[in-house]
Amino acid sequence: MLGDQLNRRLGALDEATPASARILFVESAAKVSSKRWHRQRAHLVLCAMRRFAAELVAEGFEVDYQRASSLAAGLAAHRLKYGVERVVAMEPASYDGRALLQSLGVEVVRSDQFLCHYEEFARWAAERRTVKMEDFYRWQRSRLGYLMDGSEPVGGRWNYDAENRERPPSDGRAWPVPPRTPLDDLDREVLEELPETCWGSDPDGTWATSRPEALRRLEHAVTEVLPVFGPHEDAMLSGSWHMAHTLLSPYLNLGLLLPSEVCDAAEAAYRSGRVPLASAEGFIRQVLGWREYVWGRYWQLVGDYRHANALGAERPLPPLFTGAPTQMRCVSQVLDAVHAHGYAHHIQRLMVIGNLALLAGVDPWQLTEWMWASFVDGAEWVMLPNVVGMALYADGGVMATKPYAAGGAYIDKMSDYCGSCRFDRRNRVGPDACPFTTLYWAFFDQHQQALGRNARVARQVHAVQRLSDLPAVRIRAAEVLDALDGGSL
Fold first, then answer.
1. Which of 186, 261, 254, 194 shows the shortest CA–CA distance to 221?
2. What is the model's pLDDT at position 161?
């Protein structure tokens, strides 16, 4: 059993019995030390593995929980201990993981952790000229029957995204408080064993490390969060790190929850009148559409995609990503939340963290690795398409039809971050100019050849050449980037 497949209903374990199978877990020291993991990310995975192993023991299975230097070493120790030759595993979520198991002689069975296996996705994609998420999402809805009335979508529309982009509310409302589970001896044991390279705040019980607690989070999400989820799902507020986001992605990615049961619960809540259609549709689109689309795209693109760098971005990861302070209030707010919780929602990831890295020309793989290690729901299959394709446009338009570049005006529109910031989002030059606004114009100036023929951003490319203060913008951009590199922005 791998650490992101922690469910009794997955793979070969679904039909296994204590009489027919022995269970092997390998807690790999090499994996734990392979990155500068956020403490809550490492804690979540290790605790969830150990709790699931204990659940299987309670069910009557013989469990060999190997704590080894590597997966290969743990597997070898298991084979030697029991004299077994045949070892079966569900295929890993990563390309390298699958290749490793195959090289070690492990029999790999087809993954059923997603509603659309990547081979099905490849067959669907092969029949199309363009591989768009919206088309995939509609295909998924049609074939699986979610939010459908016969062959038509419920309500007559496939997508309610336009209704889910409202600005942040200014009424000071209270957002649903995430459930917590008191830490126990196992939690403390794992925390004591984490390597010193791990960073971030210790867990506070927000992230469930067992299936029963993950199911409790799902019930909370459906009853308390989804009713208010939709309208403000793209908004950002300094007073709430979670707002109306369900926070279920870590459990889906570890197998503690399955996508079918999550979508079933959301649809049932809509059908019973407890959740508005726009909120239910927006949530199901994230799970059934975007999440599964990213999974399928990962398997299509992995390999050379790790080295994609269409815009020639080579800046090392700036110091603010590893603890240096910043005067940019939006960036500070988001990175403080990452430090405290190992989490930021999709707009904070794309339009604050990703946008800054895009405008500054940060190396795509360095940002991918940082986000992979920093978020509780991180994984290569999650971050590679989202960072390389969506956030940084490093694939030249394979995942997205345009770079998601934005100045301070967008952040001001969708958040309350700008009001008390030391920088002025309206200015692109001068010492008080918003770095996002300055770098936004400098970005289109720098990449006019690569982006000038892109219909979705050609207007910005042409507009920058008409700026009367373009020379000053270039000077200010160089100052901003120097400060960013020096950890003094």
1. 261
2. 85
Give the Cα separation of 387 and 21 in Å (integer): 39
Q: Around Cβ 158, how many Cβ atoms within 10 Å?
A: 18
Parallel, antiparallel, or unpaired: how do β-strands 148-149 and 152-153 relate? antiparallel
Alpha helices in 34-107 (DSSP H): 39-59, 71-82, 95-103
Q: Look up the CATH number of the domain holding residue 433.
A: 1.10.579.10
What pLDDT, on the 0 to 100 scale, is given for residue 85? Answer: 87
pTM for the structure as a whole: 0.95
pLDDT, residue 166, reads 87
Burial 240-276 (b: 16+ CB within 10 A, else e): bbbbbbbbbbbbbbbbbbbbbebbebbbebbeeeebb
Q: What is the pLDDT of residues 362-395, one digit of tens each?
A: 999 999 999 999 999 999 999 999 999 999 999 9
3-class DSSP state of 67 = strand
Domain boundary among 81, 109, 137: 109
In three-state secondary structure terms, 349 is: helix
Whole-number Å distance between alpha carbons of 205 and 227: 24
Which H or E element spans position 264? helix 259-271
Instruction: Give residue-wise pLDDT tens across range 44-85.
Output: 999 999 999 999 999 999 999 999 999 999 999 999 999 998
Instruction: Look up the CATH number of the domain holding residue 292.
Output: 1.25.40.80
**Contact status, residue 70 vs residue 30, Cβ threshold 8 Å:** yes
* Whole-number Å distance between alpha carbons of 354 and 375: 14
Tokens 């126990």 appear where?
A: 184
Tokens of 354: 């990703």
Q: Are residues 313 and 270 in the same domain?
A: no
Alpha helices in 272-390 (DSSP H): 277-284, 292-301, 329-341, 346-348, 355-360, 364-374, 380-383
Amino acid at 388: V
Same domain, yes or no: 82 and 173: no
Does residue 311 share a domain with residue 291? no
Q: Are residues 133 and 274 in the same domain?
A: yes
Task: Domain of residue 383: give its range.
Answer: 307-486
> Checking DSSP bridges between strand 107-109 and strand 62-68, what pairing results, if any?
unpaired
In this prediction, the residues of the chain whose per-residue pLDDT falls under 50 are none
pLDDT of residue 230: 86
Q: What is the 3-state secondary structure (H, E, C) of 372-394?
A: HHHCCCCCHHHHHHHHHHHHCCC
Burial call 163-200: b when 16+ CB within 10 Å, e when fewer: bbbeebeeeeeebbebbebebeeebeebbeebeeebbb
Domain assignment of residue 6, yes or no: no
Report the alpha-carbon distance of residue 38 to residue 229 in Å, rounded.
27
Number of domains the chain is built from? 3
